[in-house]
Amino acid sequence: MSLDQILRSNTRRRSLFVLTIMFGMWGICSAQNDSDEQVPETNLEIIRTLARQVGIRISRTIPQDDSVRIVVMPRESAWYVETPLLQALREKGILVTGSSSAPLNAEFGFGEARVEYSNLRRDGFLGTKLLDRKVTLFLSARAVDLRTGSILTASDFEESKIDTIALSDLTVVENPNLPITRGVLPREGFFSNFAEPLILLGAIAVAVFLLFNVRS
């Protein structure tokens, strides 16, 4: 076998090796991404968790030996937060009632719930697309002792949670029927959107060229 033939054979082997490694790493990365994925909390679940946190904070200002009537407004959207608020108060020993004759009255105003996405990127080269999620809840609360007219608490609350989710999980965390659970996606960066695929295609093209066009 001549030197040129040996070089040609070695070059083809190297090209095949490069292609094998590239596709192998791609497959390993994809499998790793799939195995590491966990189902995140939905945006609605986070909103309710934040409402629960407000309920816990308010419970510290309400006496446990008197019953309190809870009102959440506006009524058409109260269901988003009413249940976790009541659960938090009851778990802290507050005597919650629906009776208008209760000596204490607590009113909650559901201001807004906001979902924001940012920093769309890949987790490494050709990895899973990730984005940062921030869910914010705005609630106002006012508790009054009706016997004396004294205000037990009057506060505006802004509770939020920030985490990172996979772009593919948007269909899980958002509810298409509830606008309150949806956010606007940010633009993807140039590198992850165009440069990474071009780099991969370029490397494959070079390997294929070397494989089939080495001079004999």
Overview of the structural elements:
With 216 residues, this protein is α/β, with parallel strands linked by helices. The chain folds into two domains: 1-36; 37-198, Double Stranded RNA Binding Domain (2-Layer Sandwich). 41% of the residues lie in helices and 29% in strands. The protein contains five helices and five strands, in the order H-H-E-H-E-E-E-E-H-H. It has helices spanning 3-36, 43-59, 82-91, 170-173, 190-212, and strands at residues 67-73, 95-97, 104-122, 129-145, 150-166. It has a five-stranded mixed beta sheet, covered by helices on one side. A hairpin with a 6-residue loop joins strand 3 (104-122) and strand 4. Helix 1 (3-36) runs antiparallel to helix 5 (190-212) and helix 2 runs parallel beside helix 3 (82-91). It is elongated, with a radius of gyration of 29 Å. The model is unreliable at 29-33 (pLDDT under 50).
Number of helical regions: 5
Please write the CATH class name of the largest domain: Alpha Beta
Indicate the CATH topology of the largest domain: Double Stranded RNA Binding Domain
Q: Mean pLDDT, nearest integer?
A: 83
Main attributes of the structure:
single chain; 5 strands; 216 residues; alpha/beta; five-stranded mixed beta sheet; Double Stranded RNA Binding Domain
Helices and strands in order, then pairings?
Elements: H1 3-36, H2 43-59, E1 67-73, H3 82-91, E2 95-97, E3 104-122, E4 129-145, E5 150-166, H4 170-173, H5 190-212
Parallel strand pairs: 1-2, 1-3
Antiparallel strand pairs: 3-4, 4-5
Helix pairs in contact: 1-5, 2-3
